[in-house]
Specification:
The protein contains 11 helices and 5 strands, in the order αααααααααβαββαββ. It has 432 residues and is of the alpha+beta class. Strands 1-2-3-5-4 form a 5-stranded mixed β-sheet, covered by helices on one side. The longest helix has 81 residues. The two termini are 37 Å apart.
Length: 432
């Protein structure tokens, strides 16, 4: 149903451009209007004077003052939009002098009415209305005083006509100004709303890009860390314990396969089709996560219980990713060690803790093979705290998005602890 209207849009824009091309400049329009008003005033007053029943002073008296006033009040309109107040004052003074000297009545007020309209239409609202009100009041008094002894008395009706027409001209100008102001405000609101929509869209795109980057980092880093450990074990025991090498190769195959599935699910948001997408991982997969960590050489103790109620999906996914990244950091930077994973389900908060005991001192304790850790992600190798790595920064961002908090610090003596508190009613901006 909208297609005919859409088809007309280019045509309408083309017609608007053509009309704008033939439109005269504003100054040229005002000059032509001023010339037209001047001719109308002079010709109209001359015609009215020839047929008037009221005796009046000829326009040629006092050095053609009548013609001068009519011409001046008309030509001044050429600059009406640039200087509306001086133009109105000039036209008003010309009208007062004209009727005070008793020149013939007629359409000599055309310039004054246009000046009044311009004053209120192109003014600044309240001040312009006050100026117009004061001017009309002064004109009214001057016109009534000048017509005090007019004969016949019926001719005074033209004075009231001038008063009423002046008020109507000012009111018309104010109406046009108000409509123009309302239209400009509506246009500004529309532009502001469009800018807001664009900013919100960019913000959503940036948030989604950051979410995908975090998911890719967590998935790939965890899988690569386990594959790296298992490949090192395979190389170490290939000749001595082939059955152990076979197990590690199976673990590598399973880990890489799951990582590929998760990658397809993560990147599926960039496709139009929803086919083949897997749900986001959650805490129901924590047993599988710890089992793979044990295959990588970690001695994991899991302290958890069934949650009292289903977790919000955003909290569930964030808690899983924090556990995954914390365990990955232990595998990459510490190597085989004892790790405690605790999930504490509170009434309104979920607390996740991952504590490792640091690298083992005796190489013989390393059942997985020769995997020597370099340093922890928040240690500079000398025990001093350094800038957190991307993994910890990503975990902290996940917590902050849900209105929670995360601490990652070295434990007294040795080891490292990651603790996250996730509110079950997220207060942050969630991008699942």
């Amino acid at each position: 149903m909208l297609e005919p209207f859409r088809a007309r849009e280019p045509y309408d824009r083309h017609m608007q451009h053509r009309v704008a091309a033939f439109r005269l400049p504003v100054l040229a329009q005002d000059v032509l209007l001023a010339l037209f008003i001047t001719v109308m005033q002079v010709q109209g007053v001359q015609s009215a004077a020839e047929s008037a029943e009221v005796a009046s002073r000829p326009l040629t008296d006092l050095g053609y003052l009548g013609y001068v006033l009519l011409i001046a009040s008309g030509l001044v309109l050429a600059v009406r939009r640039r200087w509306p107040v001086p133009v109105f004052v000039t036209a008003a003074l010309a009208s007062l002098v004209y009727y005070s000297v008793d020149f013939p009545d007629g359409p000599g007020w055309l310039g004054l009415f246009v000046a009044l309209y311009t004053l209120t239409a192109y003014g600044d609202g309240r001040r312009s209305l006050v100026t117009a009100g004061v001017g009309i009041t002064v004109l009214t008094i001057g016109w009534l005083v000048a017509a005090a002894d007019i004969e016949p008395r019926a001719a005074i009706g033209w004075v009231f006509f001038r008063i009423g027409a002046s008020v109507m001209s000012a009111a018309l100008g104010e109406s046009v100004r108000s409509r123009r102001f309302i239209a400009a405000e509506a246009q500004e609101r529309a532009e502001r709303a469009e800018r807001t929509r664009e900013e919100e869209a960019r913000s959503r795109v940036d948030a989604e890009r950051l979410r995908i980057a975090r998911e890719v980092h967590d998935t790939v880093a965890h899988a690569i860390a386990i594959i790296n450990v298992q490949s090192g074990v395979t190389a170490h025991v290939l000749d001595k314990r082939p059955e152990r090498a076979r197990e590690t190769l199976v673990t590598i195959e399973q880990t890489s396969s799951q990582a590929l599935r998760e990658m397809r699910a993560i990147l599926g948001v960039l496709r139009d089709s929803d086919d083949g997408r897997a749900p986001h991982p959650g805490l129901e997969q924590v047993d599988e996560l710890t089992a793979k960590a044990r295959d990588a050489g970690l001695d994991i103790k899991l302290e958890t219980m069934s949650p009292p109620a289903p977790l919000p999906s955003a909290v569930d996914s964030a808690a899983y990713r924090i556990l995954q990244e914390s365990i990955t950091n232990v595998i990459r930077h510490v190597g085989p060690t004892r790790v405690t994973v605790a999930l504490d389900y509170g009434i309104d908060v979920l607390e996740v803790r991952v504590i490792d005991e640091g690298p083992r001192d005796t190489p013989g304790d390393d059942a997985a093979g020769p995997h020597v850790p370099a340093r922890h992600p928040t240690s500079d190798g000398t025990g001093n705290s350094a800038e957190p790595g991307r993994g910890i920064r990503g975990m902290r961002e996940r917590c902050q998005l849900l209105g929670g908090e995360l601490t990652a610090r070295s434990r007294p003596g040795r080891g490292f602890e990651v603790k996250a508190r996730l509110p079950l009613a997220p207060t942050g901006t969630v991008h699942p």
